[in-house]
Amino acid sequence: MSAVEELQKVGFRDAITIERLLQDDQVKDKLNGKALIVDEAGMVSGRQMAEVIDLAHDRIARIVFSGDTRQIHSVEASDALRILEKESKLRSISLTQVQRQRVDAYRQAVEELRADPHGGFARLDGMGAIREVVYEDRAKAVAEAYAQAQIAQDGSGKNRSVLVVSATHHDIDNITSAIRQNRRAAGDLGRETALTQHVPLNWTEAQKRDVRNYAAGQVLEFHRAVKGVANESLEVVRVEAGHVIAKDTLGGEHTIGAKQAKAFSVHEERSINVAGNDRLLLAANRREPGFRATNGELVTVRGIARDGSIELQDGRTLPANYRQFTHGYAITAHRSQGKTVDAVVISADQMKKELFSVAASRGRQELTVITADKGRLHDSIACSGSRQSATELARKSHVNGITKPGHGIREQFAIQESANAHLSQESRGHVLPEILSSSHGLGPTKGLGPLAELTGGYIPGDVQQHVPASGGREPSRDPVRLVKQTTPQEAIVPGKEEKQKGYEEDLAQDEGCGFGF
Questions:
Q1: In terms of Cα–Cα distance, which of 347, 291, 351 is closest to 141?
Q2: How far apart (Å, rounded) are the C-alpha atoms in residues 295 and 4?
Q3: Separation of alpha carbons 321 and 28, rounded Å
Q4: Residue 221: strand, helix, or coil
Q5: C-alpha distance from residue 44 to each of 77, 262, 268 (Å)
Q6: How many CB atoms lie within 10 A of CB 190?
Q7: Tens place of pLDDT for every residue, the chain, 517 residues?
Q8: Contact partners, residue 375, CB within 8 Å, separation at least 6
Q9: H/E element holding 55?
Q10: 233, 278, 280, 474: which has the highest count of C-beta atoms within 10 A?
Q11: Which phi and psi (to 5°) does residue 323 adopt?
């Protein structure tokens, strides 16, 4: 189930996504003078938070944010809920009792993961929940664990619901192939049909505004109506005079400019085999007469019609022009947040703290972790993926003497980025330690000690040591860099800033400790 479905199931029958609220004028009108509950608010971006607050102000509505700032943050910029919780004077109420896990040992491990990741990992290992296999056998081992967990019966006599959570899309593809192969061999899948799916390219706003990036055959999926285009799919035909020319299903051409970049996402067509009884993940919202789909839903196929529409076991039919879906056996941690299943299987060699905590806590009864490197996974889950806001960066920089009060935000950020780049290179052995200069006009410094707090997660057990300005010589009295030294040596790698909303987990691209914001 998607997060929206979970809410509808427990009584919030009018639950919708934030994006639909922000885009649907009819829904906005219903908000007048009412209370708006925002669930999973920790995943709300700065842009969304600002628009929701403005909307509530205009409609004289009250907002109640419900979320966990220690779980996964937004794909877009800004950890809005954490900043509100820390910087504002809004009153907060904490819920401390875990409700989802029904097995005592499992529940205790999940609770400890939040407070002490390594302690929680040890509890899971003691339960026999963590299995180490060679990398080449991991997809096969996950497929077997999936089948075993599904066959086990719960009190209702039905097969248990099972979810596989993986760290990378490459891993997801391999696991999906292995699971479908097993199901096909067991006779669980019907006749396969080759269909077309629209796969997001996850472009940033800047990339969408640059017409040089477009090519004929690409698909523009509009999630917000613009002049002449409703919520529909257009196919790119050509680029002309600085604009993209795209056609609709009837052959009509539309001119798309840079100002419309926020209204659509860019996709490419790929072939996908779908069979009866297959599991699919729906990746786009759709509201139209006779059909309703929510981004993140997991559904089961009943059959495929001749026109390419997909009949679902819940009675709905995916229209032939709804092509934003993929197989739904394995998903990333971002996709899993808000979901609840009987058993969860995690496949990863490294994951950040928030990702692992969310993935591990999706199950009611059982958790299995399959990895090719238990030690690496153990070390990585202590690294947080939390990001600093501009105000937090400025405050810490002033307190620690890295920048001067006279520096503007942009200048402070540039100084910090430069320092991070040097420190990141040192961590990979690309440059030798060097004396800090005052090229930014900072004057004398005290080394990079203060930067330690600003440049990402430290694995417990890390030590810092002063490194001479040149090998072998005694340290001079000049300021010297403080270089991180960690065991294992390459446990810390440069991170990437997540810039674009897409299948969320292209986020799953970099799950180790990293430098950056």
A1: 347
A2: 9
A3: 27
A4: strand
A5: 9, 17, 27
A6: 16
A7: 556 666 666 667 677 788 888 877 888 888 888 888 888 887 888 888 888 889 989 888 888 888 777 776 677 777 778 888 877 777 787 777 777 878 899 999 998 988 899 999 999 999 999 999 999 999 999 999 999 998 866 566 678 899 999 989 999 999 999 999 999 999 999 999 999 999 999 898 889 999 999 999 999 999 888 888 887 899 999 999 889 999 998 899 999 988 899 889 999 999 999 999 999 999 988 888 888 888 888 999 999 999 999 999 999 999 998 999 999 999 998 888 888 899 999 999 999 988 999 999 999 999 999 999 999 999 999 888 777 777 777 777 665 555 555 555 566 566 666 666 555 554 444 443 333 333 333 333 333 333 333 333 323 333 333 333 334 444 433 333 333 333 333 333 333 333 333 333 333 333 334 323 2
A8: 488
A9: helix 46-58
A10: 278
A11: -125, 15
Residue positions counted in the chain: 517
Cα(170)–Cα(183) distance, rounded to whole angstroms? 20
- Tell me which amino acid residue 211 is: V
- Which helix H or strand E contains 151, and what residues bound it? helix 138-151
Sheet of strand 310-312, all strands in order from the earlier edge strand to the far edge:
317-318, 310-312, 298-304, 279-282, 325-327
Query: For residue 313, what are the CA distances in angstroms to 170, 276, 299, 308, 318?
Result: 29, 10, 8, 16, 11
Q: What is the DSSP letter of 492?
A: B
Give the span between the Cα atoms of 308 and 319, in whole angstroms.
8
Q: Which amino acid does the sequence have at 288?
A: E
